[in-house]
Specification:
Distance between the termini: 19 Å
CATH class: Alpha Beta
Number of domains: 1
Radius of gyration: 18 Å
CATH superfamily: NAD(P)-binding Rossmann-like Domain
Largest sheet: 8 strands, mixed
Helix content: 40-55%
Strand content: 5-15%
Structural class: alpha/beta
Oligomer: single chain
Order of helices and strands: EHEHEHEHEHEHHEEHH
Shape: globular
Length: 307
């Protein structure tokens, strides 16, 4: 069992990166981690608001919290972000892959991907790979990846992964959130195969929460509002995944209530194809091809170094 104990990354303060931290769940997650004494890097494309929130958290907690620009839809931005971080940090305690888009108008990321797939999944896949060595070098580190309860009715359409033939926003969103869950479990399997105890890879989902994600689907947000719980409650599964003493690699946390919509945060089981190991391997291999990044090389190199 791994926990958040162990050597610190920045003096006597642990370091966490939270994506999508300018608002909503990401901001609440960042704030709660700051409350535990961590130095948190708020990473977001909305850098102006991100800086305001980071300055506010720093004024309250004084742990070195700051904001950094990150566009998860642009591999150049991801590389720039990780280069800056690694230039002054060789360790990282917690990476929270939280940012996401839901039901945006049809467009393309900087690398030409459908935005749900390119941002929610490929962006976090790339970010994790580029930070993997620092995570492996940190005892007790964790990669915490935010999925969604809608993974239960999702599948991966390998014939039209980037919506080149047809763009169905809701299906694309569900596909991306299934992919994030499969990525989390596959990362843990590969860490285990290489006998690497750090990091552990943990997934979570917030249930139904009224966040800025619904900016592109206000009618859906209004329809679901009676079933929603607060942002604080929605952040709770992620906080347990980040800091819980009993958390193990491969765990999945979410609300305990009906259909996982809301309730107390507990360990839950993947639904639908969320536990399909063959599908996870296929998504992993496709992600390597689409990003040009190979985490298996990093894992192999670090396994040899550590042993």
């Amino acid at each position: 069992m791994s926990n958040v104990g162990g050597p610190r990354s920045h003096g006597d303060v642990k370091t966490a990166i939270v994506t999508g931290a300018a608002s909503g769940l990401g901001l609440r997650i960042a704030e709660t981690l700051c409350e535990t004494g961590m130095r948190v890097i708020l990473a977001d494309i909305d850098i102006d608001r991100c800086r305001i929130e980071a300055e506010n958290l720093e004024s309250i907690f004084g742990t070195g919290t700051k904001a950094e620009y990150l566009d998860l839809g642009d591999k150049r931005s991801i590389k720039g972000f990780t280069d800056v971080f690694l230039s002054s940090n060789d360790r990282l305690d917690i990476l929270v892959n939280n940012a996401g888009v839901m039901n945006p108008p049809f467009l393309r990321t900087s690398q030409g991907h459908e935005p749900h797939w390119g941002i929610n999944h490929l962006g976090h896949f790339s970010l994790t790979v580029l930070l993997l060595k620092a995570l492996i070098n940190t005892e007790g580190s964790r990669v915490v990846t935010q999925s969604s309860i809608v993974h239960d009715s999702a599948d991966i359409d390998f014939t039209d992964i980037d919506s080149e033939r047809r763009y169905r926003p809701w299906q694309a969103y569900k596909q991306s959130k299934l992919a994030t869950l499969l990525f989390s479990s596959e990362l843990q399997r590969r860490l285990d195969n290489h006998h690497l105890n750090d990091p552990i890879s943990v997934a979570c989902h917030p249930g139904l929460v009224n966040t800025p994600l619904y900016r592109n689907g206000r009618s859906l947000g209004l329809l679901l509002r009676p079933f929603m719980h607060s942002i604080g409650d929605g952040a709770a599964p992620c906080i347990i995944a980040c800091t819980g003493n009993d958390v193990k690699g491969g765990d999945f946390y979410g609300p305990e209530g009906w259909r996982g919509f809301r309730g107390k945060p507990v360990k839950v089981e993947p639904l639908g194809r969320g536990a399909d190991a063959r599908l996870a391997t296929r998504v992993w291999d496709l992600s390597k091809t689409m990003t040009g990044l190979d985490p298996d090389i990093v894992l192999s190199q670090q396994s040899k170094t550590n042993h």
